[in-house]
Amino acid sequence: MSQFRKDPFSDRWVIFAEGRERRPNEYEQTAGRRRDARCPFCVGHEVDTPPAIHTYRSNGQRDDEWLVRVVPNMYPALVPRGTAEPSANGLYQTCAAVGAHEVIVETPRHVASFTELTDAEARCLLLAYRDRILVHGRAGHLKYALVFKNVGPAAGASLEHAHSQVVATPMIPPELQRELTAAERLYKAHGQCFFCRVIADELTHATRLVAQSDRFVAICPYASRMPYELWVLPREHSSKFESQDPTALAELADFLRLNLGKLESRHRQFAYNYFIHTGPFDTPHLNHYHWHIEVFPRLTTTAGLEWGAGYFINPVLPEHAAAIMRS
Amino acid sequence: MSQFRKDPFSDRWVIFAEGRERRPNEYEQTAGRRRDARCPFCVGHEVDTPPAIHTYRSNGQRDDEWLVRVVPNMYPALVPRGTAEPSANGLYQTCAAVGAHEVIVETPRHVASFTELTDAEARCLLLAYRDRILVHGRAGHLKYALVFKNVGPAAGASLEHAHSQVVATPMIPPELQRELTAAERLYKAHGQCFFCRVIADELTHATRLVAQSDRFVAICPYASRMPYELWVLPREHSSKFESQDPTALAELADFLRLNLGKLESRHRQFAYNYFIHTGPFDTPHLNHYHWHIEVFPRLTTTAGLEWGAGYFINPVLPEHAAAIMRS
Asked: Per-domain residue ranges for chain B?
């Protein structure tokens, strides 16, 4: 049975995933994208994944044609059944790893990059992100859904075909809780959403501004952990990604593709993660929190200083990164 | 000028290191150990590093012979001069990256593994760890020194020759602060050092115990983030690594080598970080904190779930890892 365990010395939750255990010698530290003989995400190979949870089609498409497909993860870290109440285990705390772990296949074609998605695929993908968050929010026993994407082996991707993931859990993830707590403190100190202040500052001075559209901005954050770290935020205050309407999501799809393209064009085999930070399910609207997407490039390797101290070393100032990406 | 910058949304400090910046296309995501044409750490190549800060020799060794050598990092993330006072920078906080960044060359011979060190080298290395922490503690303007080691490219090592690093900073690192806060809360709740409780529990039940010596234990922690994560702790309560006497440090050197050997013998090209967590400089003795060494294997790649949510996924239960390492 998969389980969460809490580290008492850091309050960090770790997911122990049943069925993913391998013998030590089977760990391979490989580089280069793995090319599977038969890609389970390609059109025509639908039988290689569990049955789809949801399929997105264009108007007038035949039943066997699709743009975006949501399927259960073949090796889920979380399971849908069980009671999600933390309980004592000797000195420690544990909790059944109840929740959801889904894969969103972004296109029927075997392409690796978000920038190779068609307009319709990219827009359907963003709709799928919204829909999955809304569906898990309605389940009642879950508190949060993280939408994320891993691109390239250095970013933890095991398959090349463009895909995203959704993990829904019965607790608010530690990184979100940290951000929510800080945002609330900043709101109290400044009487205003601090994300809104940062956006206004960048729209005025453009020190770390990379791009803007009608509804969105892309900036390199002041204390970027990684070279070329990029955040995409809505210009208008909103704590919920999933409250965006289809028009805004279509604009976001185009804006995200444009900015990911800037990063990809400057790096060979650009590996990155991105994730959506949105408010928890049980908070309909927060004045102090502002949803955003964090693009986290994997150009440097974290080492003892990052893991042991929590200090990141970044050789590229975000002002320089933003200037390069603007040019 | 190198600088710390604080991310307002996470209170994380990032070090922006002058002189380490590269153009984007120069980032390489390579695997396999880099083999330098001429290793700057080998005996006879001392001219390739800045002059030594300290050199450890055996009794009776000639001046040009050494066991362990402490040198300044060629590309330091921190600089010794300047005022280490946080100050405002627009909406944000910054601080000069004042401190120390040193490399400890662990042997004059070109060997990659801690397990290949001689008894004398391993023991000198542990003495060097202690001495560097003591030296930086006496400087007055610094609060903490993290001793760490990166082994293998997957763990962020850029040179193969066995070496460790020391980073001393004018603030307590975020990961330490987090651990100190939790340890204090646990002490108040249980009336006892929680690390001591964990050690007693493992010595009684051996659920996650890997090995023990007269003075030390090695355990796989209950909520291990990584497969085969290993912590080494002193059996007797102590908040300060640097208060260990040379006899204890010699025992620790042997014990650490034994346990790292268990990990290496089970994995090809075993990449890992280890770091010493000890009390801050200005805390002579803490009842609630217990120094230890965390060995952090790099067998899996962190991805969107780790960075976006703060959840680690670990496919190996620490009970299984400990049983495998005991056998």
From this structure: 3-171, 175-326
Distances (CA, A) of B133 to A13, A323, B213, B241: 31, 40, 25, 9
Evaluate if residue A31 carries a pLDDT over 60. Answer: no
B2, B97 in Cβ contact below 8 A? yes
> Mean pLDDT, chain B, as a whole number?
92
Q: Which residue has the tokens 């004592």?
A: A88
* Residue numbers in A near B312 (CB within 8 A): 12, 14-15
pLDDT digits (tens, 9 = 90+) for B55-74: 999 877 776 789 999 999 98
Q: Look at residue A119 and give its three-state secondary structure.
A: helix
Residue carrying structure tokens 């202690």: B130
CATH architecture of A3-171: 2-Layer Sandwich (3.30)
Q: CA quadruple B142, B145, B146, B149: dihedral positive or negative?
A: positive
Give the C-alpha separation, A183 to A170, whole Å.
Answer: 22
In this predicted structure, the answer to whether residue B24 has a pLDDT above a threshold of 50 is no
List, for residues A4-16, the tens digit of each pLDDT value: 999 999 988 999 9
B175-326: CATH topology is HIT family, subunit A (3.30.428)
Which are the contacts of B15, defined by CB distance < 8 A and separation ≥ 6?
Answer: A311, A312, A313, A314, B2, B3, B4, B77, B78, B97
DSSP 8-state class, residue A154 = G
pLDDT-derived band of residue A23, with 50, 70 and 90 as boundaries?
A: very low
Report the distance separating Cα A62 and Cα A30, nearest Å.
40
The chain-wide mean pLDDT, for chain A, equals 92
Examine the predicted complex and report whether its ipTM is higher than 0.90: yes
B 102-131 residues with CB below 8 A of A? none
Q: What is the pLDDT of residue B80?
A: 85
Q: Which residues of B223-251 are buried (b: 16+ CB within 10 A; e: fewer)?
A: bbbbbbbbbbbbeebbbbbbbbeeebbbb
Partner-chain contact B156 A301, CB within 8 Å: yes
- Tell me if the domain spanning A190-326 has CATH number 3.30.70.20: no
Name the β-bridge partners of B96: B3
Which residues from chain B sit within 8 angstroms of residue A186, using beta carbons?
Answer: 8-9
Give the count of beta carbons closer than 10 Å to the beta carbon of residue A62.
7
